[in-house]
Amino acid sequence: MKVHENNNRIIGSRVEYIESTTSTNEYIKQKFDSGNLKNGLAVLASQQTKGKGFRNNKWESEAHKNITFSFIVYPEFLFASKQFVLSQSVSLAILDYLSSYSTGFVVKWPNDIYFKNKKIAGILIENSIQGEYLHDSIVGIGININQEVFSSALPNPISLKNITGKEFNIRKEFDKLLETINMHYLHLINTDLAVISESYLNNLYRINQWATYKTINGSFTGKIVGINEYGFLNIISKNNENLFFNFKEVEYVL
Ligand code: BTN
């Protein structure tokens, strides 16, 4: 295993490059159980054999082609009730990184990164809470970089190579990404959280547009108008109802 230390950063203060693991989130969790980990420790794997996605989905990624990594942080300055802002900050960092290659990237609530109508990246955050505050967060990120062909089971994947026609050096891209996430994390520590939420809204897929959504009660037409402090999606329906949805309660109809 190769290790790299960088004391000028929180995120990526120590980076471990590993060949293969089940899931980098699980890898960090296991290490955590056997001792305290450095704030910002990141683990990049060339291959995951059991990558985890949001809502118990799988995360598929061809070996050596993409960025699949996790890091651990201790956001003890954040109220547990405000934990969604960490997700917003990480989403904005990924957008920032990707936007150096093209326009057209947006965040799809709660934490997917889209290029137009296609998904290029996903985030899986696992938080532990102590009292009223967050204690530690394991943040897992998958970004499709050089992969060109995807399993037909995935609804709408896309990679940076599909978009730009170029092949990327994964290590270099990873380093650039860490730098950007670190910058956004420092911003999260030092800024009014409302500023981060506002810029998340400014980059939100389908904000203020009429579209179709699905709940257990069926489909309806609505317009996303915001996100509340708990990260719930606020949709106004055609009948002028003001609705709030938690992560699992609503789906976008493409
Ligand atoms: C999603 O969009 O469903 C979230 C995907 C998160 C994937 C990343 S890849 C690195 C880390 N390890 C995992 O097993 N999952 C996350």
Describe this structure in words.
Helices cover 24% and strands 33% of the residues. The chain is of the alpha+beta class and 254 residues long. The protein folds into 2 domains: 201 residues, Bira Bifunctional Protein, Domain 2 (BirA Bifunctional Protein, domain 2, 2-Layer Sandwich), CATH 3.30.930; 43 residues, Roll (SH3 type barrels), CATH 2.30.30. The strands form 2 sheets. The protein has an 8-stranded mixed beta sheet, sandwiched between helices. Strands 12-11-10-9-13 form a 5-stranded antiparallel beta sheet, with no helix packed on it. Strand 7 and strand 8 form a beta hairpin. Helix 2 packs across helix 4 and helix 2 crosses helix 5. The longest helix is centred in the C-terminal third of the chain and has 21 residues. It is globular. It starts with a strand and ends with a strand. Bound molecules: biotin (BTN). Biotin binds next to helix 1, strand 4, strand 7 and strand 8.
